[in-house]
Write a structure and sequence with these properties.
Layout lengths: L1 E8 L8 E8 L4 E5 L6 H8 L7 E6 L11 E4 L13 H8 L4 H6 L16 H12 L6 E5 L7 H18 L2 E5 L3 H7 L2 E4 L1
Parallel strand pairs: 3-7, 3-8, 5-6, 6-7
Antiparallel strand pairs: 1-2, 1-4
Bound molecules: adenosine-5'-triphosphate.
Length: about 200
């Protein structure tokens, strides 16, 4: 289980933006996270992924604190351009995560012809599919999908969510979906948490 227990976190000396929050995501479960703008959803997502250290409380991944090495909690960013090294080719970016099997690559519609290009040489929707593919390595146990589909066309959205749901079912992954899109959350998640 991926869980945050009574976590508190603030940026710098400012008041905490997440304070005393509990959330848990079981393997095989898709949990929706919504709430007003600025409520701290992305901050909570990053805490769960181990990007921030809580000022109080704890984040546990299958009962343990985040450790060094491969992050079994993969955070998917709304703007994938911020999640990749602009000097790396697409092939290198994907290989950083794993060497994907054909089925997963094709499910996401990632073309091998993109592998020699740089992030600024492919579209936003293509880059998001690449970021999702990179995150689905065999050691991944949980995914935090932070507004990953909002700016994308409906076809790309459907392709990404179908691939993610497929991976969740096949590999018993736990996934937190952060979104303002209530119909999307109703469709995807078994449980909705409002911050
Ligand atoms: N790196 C940062 N430095 C300082 N303040 C930040 C930083 N990141 C976020 N904040 C502030 O923390 C608060 C929570 O931000 P966060 O992005 O977690 O909210 P959110 O619920 O995801 O919002 P939205 O729905 O608009 O994406 C906001 O007031 C935001 O301005």
């Amino acid at each position: 289980m991926l869980e945050a227990r009574r976590v508190r976190f603030g940026y710098g000396v400012r008041a905490p933006v997440v304070d005393g929050v509990d959330i848990s995501i079981r393997p095989g479960e898709i949990v929706g996270l919504t709430g007003r703008s600025g409520a701290g959803k992305s901050t909570l997502g990053r805490l769960l992924a181990g990007y921030h250290r809580p000022a109080a409380g704890e984040v546990l991944v299958d009962g343990k604190a985040h450790a060094k090495g491969y992050n079994t909690v993969q955070y998917l960013h709304q703007s994938p351009i911020f999640a990749v090294d602009p000097r790396w080719t697409v092939g290198r970016i994907i290989a950083e995560g794993w060497s994907p099997d054909e089925e997963t690559r094709q499910a996401l519609g990632v073309s091998k012809s993109w592998y020699d290009r740089f992030p600024h040489e492919i579209s936003g929707g293509e880059l998001q599919r690449i970021a999702v593919l990179r995150a689905l390595g065999p050691r991944t146990r949980y995914l935090v999908a932070d507004e990953i589909s909002a700016p994308l066309d409906p076809l790309t959205q459907a392709q990404i969510w179908d691939a993610l749901i497929g991976a969740v079912r096949k590999r018993n992954l736990g996934m937190l979906v952060i979104s303002h899109d209530r119909p999307l959350l109703a469709r995807l998640s078994g449980r909705l948490v409002t911050l």
